Structure prediction request, 332 residues.
Amino acid sequence: MVNYKDLGLVNTREMFKRAVAGGYAIPAFNFNTMEQMQAIVMAAVETKSPVIMQVSKGARNYANATILRYMAEGAVAYAKELGCAHPEIVLHLDHGDSFELCKDCIDMGFSSVMIDGSHLPYEENVALAKKVVEYAHQFDVTVEAELGVLAGVEDEVSAAESHYTKPEEVIDFATRTGCDSLAISIGTSHGAHKFTPEQCTLVNGVLVPPPLAFDILHEIEKKLPGFPIVLHGSSSVPMDEVNTINQYGGKLEAAIGIPEEQLREASKSAVCKINIDSDSRLAMTAAIRKHLAEHPGDFDPRQYLKPARENMKKMYIHKIVNVLGSDGKLAE
Ligand SMILES: [Zn+2]
Prediction:
């Protein structure tokens, strides 16, 4: 049993309070590999931003739960080595699907967990979230729960269609579960294929997806003033990365994401955590494909993972500075 405080991590409570009040959002970047972790830490340190490093159940199986705990501890030490005296790094479980998984992560040093009972009937979602909150709060670990269903595919999480969050449910849900933040469904979606071309409108040769349901977001904000709201599935799927992948032998068809202007607008509201996973995958794959195509003789992983890490870092910095606005927002 290890407490996250011994690893130098923080929970989300204070950073969310500041983010809601300040009209910006904290980046939540998924990671599975050392290069992603390094890129996230370098970007957060350079921009002086708090950051949430999050791990899905699939990532935990991929990287190994024990190694992840040391990677998180290493991330804090690395941030300090890079010159950040008081880094604010959260280790968060993305889409926990059972009480046992959440408990296991809390016992292994996570400072925040998500319990996703959004696919369950309402009362079961309440009961499950409440049980996780009761355990987590004993160790000052913060809990994200979800109401409403996002479409798309992300590791084990998938749903064919989305169901928007019902604003009339949020007060009851937040009060009875005691959760610290709430993921809502207002039109974002998991994965790199968030929308079909048929769902989009063609504007100047670019497919533009339907806008996020800001009316629902504003209604939720009115019901729960100042309560931290989370957006999942918020990669923008940059066309230059998709084009690079396809130019160098890839085959990504009709990949469509959430326009960054929409996320920038959402960041100014009670939305204080925005999840970005696919964009990092695309940045990494694009750089690796390009490097290997241009240097067919290379076989040292460092030769192609270094540009991959650089490209991810560039993307993370862009999100922090130009989309979420969390740069310069460390407490000290
Ligand atoms: Zn998600």
